[in-house]
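To whoever picks this up:

The nightly regression suite flagged 3-hydroxyacyl-CoA dehydrogenase family protein as changed. Nothing in the input moved, so I suspect the structure step. Input below, exactly as stored in the fixture:
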Amino acid sequence: MSRVGVVGAGVMGGGVAQNLATAGHEVVLIDVSKEVLDRCAERIRNDLRFSRLLPGAAPTAVDAARAQEAITFTTDYGALADADFVVENITERWDLKARVYPVLDDVCPERTVFAANTSAIPITRIASLTRRPANVLGIHFMNPVPRKPVVELIPGHHTSPQAVGTAQELLASMGKTGIVVNDSPGFVSNRVLMLTINEAAFLVHENVATPEDVDKVFTSCFGHPMGPLATADLIGLDTILYSIEVLHESFADSKYRPCPLLKKMVDAGLHGRKTQQGFFSYALEV
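Regenerated output under the current build:
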């Protein structure tokens, strides 16, 4: 496998494209606007430059240059006409994902495997959008993608063992291992993590504690490297809210009701690190 499509040039999609390119794959990265693609290209350039300063798995200067050249940035889905594998990373909203898969069905060869990089939406539901449900599965990458060695790998109801094997082969080439879990909204990680983050937001909403003190309990008392609210800022508060809404809708259980403060922050454009402001401020980091 050499040519891989990546749909969505946000933080996750850019990370997937970068990781694939440094692993030696030819990558086609698609998004709806040149502006989004240009921002993603700049982010990848900066991350590759920063990675050279890290010990261990950082790419060499030559690797970084080759990786940048290996990525084609385009708004044209026709560039996926010979893709062997496509990773979809668009916003965690059903209406947006529902528009993309029929297009992928039309332009990609029958052999192409589709992987949804989703936080919470069931894979079987996504596969119903295509004419090839046996070739659809989920890969839940973690952020930042190039530096996280493990993912959740989720077969849908109709996913073939061959498609799972192809995905495992691709992940191995990227230096990653897939933990296979059954298809269920939120899978394993986000069934637990989204509840934790949502409840942490409620603690701030109810003035029980400040964001700093909520996170300090987890970092100081439990030794976690990050608190739940800093983690939420890293993932993106919009993604957190959409994921919780999917869980709430899927299970019809009030324990997944989104915190009003989280909704208000997303409405205000406070989406975390990517907008420089979430539960914490990151203005000085840019």
